[in-house]
Design goal:
The protein is mostly helical and 143 residues long. The protein has four helices and no strands.
Amino acid sequence: MLDKELIVYFKAAHGFFNLCMMALFCYQGWMGYLIRQARTSGVPVPLDTVRRHRKAGPVFALWGVLGFIAGVIVIMLDKGRVFEYPLHFLSGSLIAVIIVSLYSVSRRIAGPEPHYRNIHFGLGMCLLALYVIQVLLGLGILL
């Protein structure tokens, strides 16, 4: 079994990592918003922004899900059960599901058809809102 003092550092690392992930997803959302604004207003789409958005998306998605898995491992090592903090676990699970959904929907976006783009936008907004809730719940646990 790991020393309890070491677990405290793992919890803090998990929180810091996922706070950074929230910032990266906000950045990703901002790039997506700029692309969406350009598409809906008829101005030329900023190709550099599109390239960065498409390149970073899968990496951020993988990191986001790994952050959830790390949190589950940390709580299993500390408490022995994942439902020690049920609201934090539930919101983290929803975040992981939404991240996977965002990735799978983004693979279906093709051409000018707005259907999958609208779904992607809605899921992204849900993700950002859930991250704020998750951070607040996590701060309640750490402090």
